[in-house]
Design goal:
The protein has 396 residues and is an all-beta fold. 0% of the residues lie in helices and 37% in strands. Strand 16 and strand 17 form a beta hairpin. The relative contact order is 0.08.
């Protein structure tokens, strides 16, 4: 019923065409088809970049048009090859029958509080904006006609990538520190100049493995400046490389590394001399007669015996039989030191008399190389410990 032969070039401009339907409305219901053709006379039933708005008016009583433009729905930006120039583009929205007069662009740091950026003429569909690396802002655009402002366009989150990685500094422990504990307090800070977003995550690697120990921050991530703390646990003796990595939103990673040496006592056990494999020659044995001491392999009645353990037995002591390790033990080099042993007192042990102490075992300790002794515990017939059974004892 109508054909427009004037070519419509790709000018992002709405072209208005009017068609009178008076001679074709023979029914109360009707359908129309609109076809776009190229200059090669090819029909395109699906063309992404062709948009059509159709309105039917009663020309006998034309309605008054008080409608604002449609919102821009294809607001977009790209980053130029120079790495700092932002190129914004959009298409003219449907003007609702009243020509667009201008565009207003706004920007925001947080996406909620907006400020005026610039205004552009009704024929403009792009602008450039040059910013430095690390720039982060939100942008939106409005269209205006004689009846007012359109709704907001889609909101753009705009960034200018910062190729500079975050800086990381480990403040404690110091590089090449020698530590006497397997539990290490790690602390430091990380800084990122990439706008208000900053550091997105922070990781700790011990040697070639990431740490599972928790990291505490003074500011929630993401943030541009963070101080961090972590307690590294169960570090084995020897040299370790500790590395802290910080990542920014642009995918760049900064790090700092230190080397520490751990020389900590093994918690709760003696060194190799006191692992329960000591022979007779590692002890001072004193008695009226050395035959009163008997060093032998444990029988099956000794509970939880380890291979190589020995039993020291004393009998028929006229006064006292003592058993003292040759080497003293420096408890200050141990974490939570414990002494443990199994002991046995025969049922034939005698109670004390006016001339003789009770028979049994007495555990003592000395801090002055054996010159003076302090009793820790007694397991004698006087304490009814002469039950002929093995008992486990442990001292902190």
């Amino acid at each position: 019923i109508s054909q427009w032969t004037s070519p419509f070039y790709a000018d992002d401009t709405w072209h208005r065409q009017n068609v009178s339907l008076d001679n074709y409305l023979t029914s109360s219901q009707f359908k129309f088809r609109i076809i776009a053709k190229s200059n090669l006379d090819q029909e395109y039933n699906q063309i992404d970049n062709v948009r059509l708005h159709v309105r039917f008016d009663n020309t006998d009583d034309p309605p008054s048009n008080t409608v604002v433009p449609n919102a821009v729905d294809d607001f977009a930006y790209t980053l130029d090859t120079d790495g700092v120039t932002l190129h914004f583009t959009w298409s003219h929205p449907y003007d609702s029958g009243s020509d667009i007069t201008y565009y207003r662009v706004e920007r925001s740091y947080d996406g909620s509080t907006w400020q005026f950026h610039d205004s552009y003429s009704e024929t403009t569909t792009s602008f450039d904006y040059k910013r430095s690396a690390g720039y982060v802002q939100y942008f939106r655009i409005f269209a205006y006609n004689s009846h007012g402002q359109s709704a907001s366009s889609n909101i753009l989150y705009v960034t200018v990538p910062d190729p500079t990685p975050p800086s990381v500094t480990i403040t404690s422990p110091k590089n090449n520190a020698a530590l006497t504990t397997s539990i290490v307090d790690l602390s430091g800070y990380a800084h990122e100049s990439d706008g208000p977003i900053g550091i997105t995550d922070l990781l700790i690697k011990i040697d070639n493995q990431y740490s599972n120990d928790a990291i505490i921050f003074n500011n929630p991530l993401p943030y541009s400046f963070v101080q961090f703390q972590s307690v590294l646990t169960d570090l084995s003796n020897g040299q370790h490389t500790i590395t802290v990595y910080a990542n920014n939103p642009d995918g760049y990673t900064g790090y700092d590394s230190i080397v520490i040496t751990v020389d900590a006592p093994i918690p709760g056990i003696f060194d190799y001399i006191y692992n329960g494999f000591d022979s007779l020659f590692r002890w001072f044995l004193t008695a009226d007669d050395d035959d009163h001491w008997n060093i032998r392999s444990p029988t099956t009645i000794v509970p939880n015996s380890l291979p190589g353990n020995v039993v020291a037995g004393a009998k028929n002591c006229d006064n006292v039989c003592t058993m003292i390790p040759v080497d003293s033990v420096n408890l200050t080099n141990m974490i939570s030191p414990k002494m443990s042993f199994y002991r046995y007192v025969s049922t034939s042990a005698d109670t004390s008399t006016s001339t003789k102490p009770a028979e049994g075992l007495v555990v003592s300790t000395s801090i002055d190389n054996g010159n003076n002794w302090q009793v820790l515990d007694r397991f004698t017939a006087d304490e009814n410990e002469d039950d002929g059974l093995w008992h486990y004892e442990e001292y902190d």
